[in-house]
Amino acid sequence: MQSETTWDRLKAEMKAAAASLGIDKIGVASAAPFTEMKQRLLRHRELGRESGFEEPDIDKRTDPSLLFDDPQSIIAIAIAYPSKLIDAPKSQPGARRGIMARSAWGQDYHVVLRDRLAKLENWLRERVPGLRAESMVDTGALVDRAVAERAGLGWSAKNCAIITPEFGSWVYLGEMITNLPLPPDKPITDSCGDCTACIDACPTGALVGPGQLDAKRCISFVTQTKGMVSDEFMRKIGNRLYGCDTCQVVCPVNRGKNWTHQPELQPDNEKAKPLLVPLLTMGNREFKETYGMTSSAWRGRKPIQRNALIALGNFKERSAVPDVAGVLKDDPRFELRATAAWALGRIGGEEAEAALKAAQGAERDEQVLKAIEVALAAIAGEAAGEKPATE
Fold first, then answer.
1. Based on the structure, what is the number of domains in the chain?
2. What is the mean pLDDT of residues 248-266?
């Protein structure tokens, strides 16, 4: 039997130290190119299913040697995050609330994972003075899920998430390319079986097959865009302000799992499930003070304010008509004015109709005028008992 090497011992000690470093799971992957992932990404691009948020160079996404001189191993980490709000405030008529995806609860996970990776790097450097390492989280070039899968953290599920046996898919992923010849871990067997709960539950059919996501149809992507949203997607967004967790919530492996041991990731209920109306007039400074430390802030306030209008429309919240009408009348951003028009058409009623007609006379933007026209037609159709008009 082969004796334990120095690198075997270092890896074992590193895993044993994970909890003291604030890391929930560590695995090691080889630094060989991810050839299968490259083919999948090329096909993904051919089909037009990219979000546009990814690193555009597919070679860099799949070949560690293009990012790091002579890589020997990649250390993958996972940190578990909460899935439930304790004593969550209720959304009710007159006080409607939106919901942030769990990835936007607590402190920005990019900051938290970078902190953990820095601690891990310091721990390794104390034991290997010649360490070279480069860490990345989410916005790095490598595909986090591909690294995590190869490192044995979990299996790549049908919803495109990594599912760990211990924590389900409620984990953030990060990785560190190193010059250390650490022995790799074995991948975990895919345990999704015949289950298609995530595919069946996806609001927009963005999960076009097992492990296949049309990113442009994904509600999580749509909520982060800054422009206009189609009627179809606005109706599907519901009251989501940032992101979408549906495919994780319905996963049987995730049932009952809620992780509260990482202090920085615990939610502030009023930020995770905020009142919608105050968001409409929130200025940049207040937005940064309120949400600047969360991952939802990276796109600025416009997408979240637009999504708040959509949510009020989907709630058909009559009490919010004056506030929505104020956006339609005064907001300098045409995307928000057009969305406010849509929301008023969805809410309906005489007050909403009057606000739309008043705005119609003063509006000069063609897209907003079109949205007002469609909204007025929707209200007229509803009053006549017809199916509401849509674009």
1. 2
2. 97
Amino acid type, 284: N
79-108 burial code (b ≥16 CB/10 A, e <16):
bbbbbebeeeeebeeeebbbbbbbbbbbbb
Residues 163 and 267 in one domain: no
Which tens digits make up the pLDDT trace of 94-136? 999 999 999 999 999 999 999 999 999 999 999 999 999 999 9
Query: Does residue 324 share a domain with residue 283?
Result: yes
The verdict on pTM exceeding 0.90 is yes
List active site positions.
Answer: 138
Tokens 């897209």 found at? 367
Residue 341 phi/psi, 5-degree rounding, is -60, -45
**Cα gap 123→292, rounded to integer Å:** 30
* Sign of the CA dihedral with 144 first, then 149, 152, and 156 last: positive
Contacts of 142 (CB under 8 A, 6+ apart): 61, 62, 64, 67, 74, 136, 175, 177
